[in-house]
């Protein structure tokens, strides 16, 4: 697992840990801007991250983690080597677990919204943010200026009303307690940039592992997911 470390000199360094040695860490949940504006793995390696608009999110997460006494944090744009298909597939299958085991999950609301209109954010419409809402034990919402708006627990009634997700799921009841149809319904109005991601973003929701094959299309990806779920149900 690759994590970012905010060093004493203010620089950001990528550090790689074996699964059994991963330290306590924070994790960022956000919506992507244009790809060329997001900080990548190579940007951090080359020291060019500061020139991108997405660096603001990295800086926010690092400073927030430090305030919470955490020395490491994870951001999807730069903690996955996306030019490695094997690492990308493994990372997408591990994502739910990584969000679950994070000490803190910070939701970065990129729009200029207040607490009262928080639910107008694009964050509540995206496919990948579903597991980023459900998996972590601690989810805190922040404006792009770093102002804390509240957390998953304080917003649980509003989240339930806006998304249809049961309060019990928001409070940590194992997702296996909900039917397949129920879990599918939570994602049906959510969107992804790539059609296959409409399926891949559900892997953790259904505790299912399967290789990621971009280019296979939504129908083939969904068929493979259903097959893997059927196999798991028989085991």
Number of strands: 7
Q: Structural class from helices and strands? A: alpha/beta
Radius of gyration: 17 Å
Gap from first CA to last CA: 29 Å
Which strand order spans the largest sheet, edge to edge or round the barrel? 2-1-4-3-5-6-7
Succession of helices and strands: EEEHHEHEHEEHHHHH
Largest sheet: 7 strands, mixed
Strand content: 5-15%
Principal-axis shape: globular
How many domains would you count in the coordinates? 1
In helices, the fraction of residues equals 25-40%
Average pLDDT: 95
Stretches where pLDDT is under 50 for at least 5 consecutive residues are none
Please count the helical segments. Answer: 9
Pfam families: HET
Domain Heterokaryon incompatibility: 25-116
Protein name: Heterokaryon incompatibility domain-containing protein
Organism: Didymella pomorum
TL;DR?
This protein has 235 residues and is α/β, with parallel strands linked by helices. 36% of the residues lie in helices and 14% in strands. The chain has one domain (2-174).
Which key terms come to mind for this protein?
single chain, 235 residues, alpha/beta, seven-stranded mixed beta sheet, 9 helices, 7 strands, 36% helix, globular
């Amino acid at each position: 697992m690759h994590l970012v470390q905010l060093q004493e000199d203010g620089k950001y360094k990528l550090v790689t840990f074996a699964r059994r040695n991963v330290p306590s860490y924070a994790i960022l949940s956000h919506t992507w801007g244009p790809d060329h504006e997001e900080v990548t793995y190579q940007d951090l390696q080359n020291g060019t991250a500061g020139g991108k608009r997405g660096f603001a999110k990295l800086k926010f997460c690092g400073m927030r983690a430090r305030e919470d006494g955490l020395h490491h944090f994870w951001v999807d744009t730069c903690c996955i080597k996306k030019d490695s298909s094997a690492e990308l597939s493994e990372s997408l299958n591990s994502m739910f677990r990584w969000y679950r085991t994070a000490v803190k999950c910070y939701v970065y609301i990129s729009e200029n919204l207040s607490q009262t209109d928080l639910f107008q954010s694009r964050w509540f419409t995206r496919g990948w943010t579903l597991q980023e809402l459900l998996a972590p034990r601690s989810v805190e919402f922040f404006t792009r200026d770093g102002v804390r708006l509240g957390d998953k627990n304080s917003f649980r009634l509003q989240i339930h009303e806006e998304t249809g997700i049961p309060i019990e799921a928001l409070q940590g009841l194992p997702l296996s307690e909900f039917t397949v149809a129920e879990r599918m319904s939570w994602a049906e109005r959510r969107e992804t940039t790539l059609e296959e991601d409409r399926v891949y973003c559900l892997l953790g929701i259904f505790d299912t592992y399967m290789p990621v094959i971009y280019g296979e299309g939504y129908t083939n990806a969904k068929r493979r997911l259903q097959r893997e779920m059927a196999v798991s149900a028989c085991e």
